[in-house]
Write a structure and sequence with these properties.
Elements (H helix, E strand, L loop, with lengths): L2 H20 L1 E3 L27 E6 L7 E4 L5 E2 L7 E2 L5 H12 L8 E6 L9 E5 L5 E3 L7 H8 L11 E7 L2 E7 L1 H6 L14 E4 L5
Parallel strand pairs: 1-10, 7-11
Antiparallel strand pairs: 2-3, 2-6, 4-5, 7-8, 9-10, 9-11
Length: 211
């Protein structure tokens, strides 16, 4: 085990301790469902634009104003007529209506459509997996994502992981709560009842087994 790997594991352990110290605990999450099950507003989940996304803007009858624009790290884009418009945290439809309002200063009755490429999304929507995952990283949230989907995205867990002691950190009603989840039972034993919903902003901490 090299120094960098050891340092990352130590960081994950320290982060787990800090998060759990400041989080209230809840022993059980609801089982996975077709739609995320914890909050009603998530059932109406809409993709939000984030830094790194490619925003495709089409202005009807004005091809010179149309084009693809990258969202900068500050959450803004610069179009051919509008400088520094903030787009992060908006849906494509919301951005299209805002662009129509701003372009109406220059052209009569503008009609705008917006599509997204890249699908990075805002950082607050990403799901983070740290610790003894095969490929620990931030994963872009997708509607109806479950723990099994997330494990596929990060390549599962390592042979050194204590999957059944994994903690899921989630913000509920403005407070962080820690839930224990059972990854070993899910992916090593095939117990699908241990599959749970994943929501935007979740943090999954996979500890190392002490053996």
């Amino acid at each position: 085990m090299n120094l960098n790997t050891s340092a990352l594991k130590l960081l994950a352990t320290l982060l787990l301790s800090v998060l759990l110290w400041g989080c209230s605990s809840n022993a059980k999450l609801p089982e996975a469902t077709v739609h995320p099950s914890l909050t009603s507003d998530i059932n109406d989940y809409r993709y939000l634009i984030g830094p790194g996304d490619a925003v495709n803007i089409f202005v009807w009858r004005n091809p010179e104003l149309s084009g693809t624009f990258s969202v900068r790290p500050d959450g803004m884009i610069t179009t051919r007529l509008i400088e520094d418009i903030e787009v992060t945290g908006r849906t494509p439809t919301q951005l299209a209506r805002e662009l129509e309002e701003k372009l109406s200063v220059y052209i009569n009755n503008p009609r705008v459509s917006v599509t997204i490429g890249g699908y990075v999304g805002p950082f607050s929507e990403q799901v983070r997996v740290i610790g003894e995952a095969t490929n620990p990283r931030a994963v872009n949230y997708k509607e109806n994502m479950t723990l099994l989907d997330l494990m596929i995205a990060v390549g599962g867990i390592t042979e050194f992981a204590d999957g059944n002691s994994t903690q899921l950190i989630r913000t509920v009603d403005g407070k962080q709560k820690a839930y224990r989840i059972y990854i070993d039972d899910l992916i090593r034993d095939g117990d699908i009842s241990k599959n749970v919903d994943i929501l935007p902003g979740d943090i999954i901490i996979v500890p190392e087994a002490w053996f």
